[in-house]
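worker-03 picked up job from queue 'complexes'. Input manifest follows; two sequence lines, order preserved.
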Amino acid sequence: MAIGHTVAAFDAEMRELQATVESMGRIAERQLEMALKVVIDGELQLADQVVAGDAEIDQLEHRVQMMAVRLLALRQPMARDLREVVASLKIAGNMERIGDFARGIARRAAVLADLPTPPPVRSLTWMGQSVVTMVRDVTTAYVKQDPDLAMAVRNRDGEVDAAYTALFRELLTYMMESPQQIGGCTHLLFMAKAIERIGDHATNVAENVCFLVKGALPGEERIKQDLSSFTVLTRKEDPNEG
Amino acid sequence: MAIGHTVAAFDAEMRELQATVESMGRIAERQLEMALKVVIDGELQLADQVVAGDAEIDQLEHRVQMMAVRLLALRQPMARDLREVVASLKIAGNMERIGDFARGIARRAAVLADLPTPPPVRSLTWMGQSVVTMVRDVTTAYVKQDPDLAMAVRNRDGEVDAAYTALFRELLTYMMESPQQIGGCTHLLFMAKAIERIGDHATNVAENVCFLVKGALPGEERIKQDLSSFTVLTRKEDPNEG
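worker-03 finished. Artifact:
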C-alpha cells in the first residue's frame, strides 16, 4: 500500500463503510423499538413510519455491497482490514433482515389493533426489550471492534430462545381456551418468532465481530434453546364434559 | 496478475469457491425435499437425517467465508471475479438460512406426526414443490452465471407469497372450526412461513447472480404479495346461536 493520500483515502473509505454499517444497526434498532411501541403501547401512528423506514435499510445494504466491492478492487485491503470488509458485508445482510422483521411486526400490530378483543400483547415486552438491547450492543461491539461485548450478546440469545418457547406454549393454551382469539394470537406468535429470529441475526453479527478481530468464527456450536418446534399441546380433556 | 501457475492457482481457487457454494445449494435443496417428505408423506425416518445434515451446510458456509478472504488477500481478483467472490459470500449466507428453515420444517413435522388428529399437511405440497424448484434453479443460475434464469426464479416468488397468504387464511379458518387442531395447525403455519421465507432467500440469491454478471443488483422493488400479515379472520357469528 502506498503512502500519503492513498492511505488517507483508504482510511476514509474504511471509516465510511463502518459508519454505513453502524447506521444500519442504529436504524434497525430504532425500527424495532418503534415496532414494539406499535404492538405493546398501541402507538399505531408509528406503524407506517416503520414500514416506510425499511427501504432506507435496504438501500444502505446495497450501498455497503457497492462500497465493499470498490474498496476491495481499488485498495486491496489486507489482514484485519480485509476481514473488516468481509465482516461488514455479512453484518449488513443481517441488519437488513432485522429491519425486515421489524417491518413485519409493525404491519401485524396494525392488524391486531383492529380486533374486537386484543390478544395479550404485553407478553412480548420482555423478549422485545432483550432483543432491542442485543441489537444495540452488537452494533456497539462492531463499532468498537470488541469481541467480548459481541460474545456477551451471543450468550444472551439462549434466554430469548427460552422465553420464546415459553411464550409459544402460553399463547397456544390461550388460543385453546378462547378460540375467538385464534387470529390475534397467531399474529402474536409470528411476532414472537420474528423477535426470536432477530436474536439469531444479532448472534450472527456477534460472530462476525469475532471473525473481524480474531480471524476465526467462534467454533463451538451455541446451544439452541428454542424448543418451540417440539411443543405440542393437546386440548385438555374435561372430565365434566360428557 | 502474473501468468503461468499463479493464474492456474487463481482459476482453481475460484472454481473451488464456486463448487462449494454450489454444494451448499444442492444440499439445501435436498434437505428441503427431505423435510417436505417428512411432513407430507410422513417419512419420519428422514427427520433426524435433515436435522443432522444442517451442520454440513453451516460448515460449508464457514469454509466459503475463509476461502473468500484467502482469495481476496492472495489473488486480489478484479471486476467480474471480484464480484463473484462477493456474490458467493452473500449467496452462501442465504443458502445457510435455507438449510436452517429445512431443519425447522423437519423438526416440526416429527411433532405433528405424534398428534391424534393430523392437520391438513397436503396443503403445503404446492408451495413446497415450487420452492424446491426455485432453490434448484437459482443454484443452476449461479453455476451457469445466467441472469435470465435468476430473474425467472425471482419472478416466481410472488406466486409463493400469494399461496402462503391463501394458506394462512385457510388454516386460520380450520383452527376456528376445530380448536383441537390449534396446536398442529400452528406448526403447519410456521412451516408454511418457513417455505415462504425460503422463497425470499432464493430471490436474494437470484439478485446476487444478477449482481455477479451485470455489476448491479436489480433495482426495481419486487412486488411483495405476502399479505398474510394483513389477514384478519374473526369468528363467524352464527345467527342460530342465541
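worker-03 released lock.
Chain A touches chain B through 46 residues (CB under 8 Å).
Chain A has a mean pLDDT of 90.
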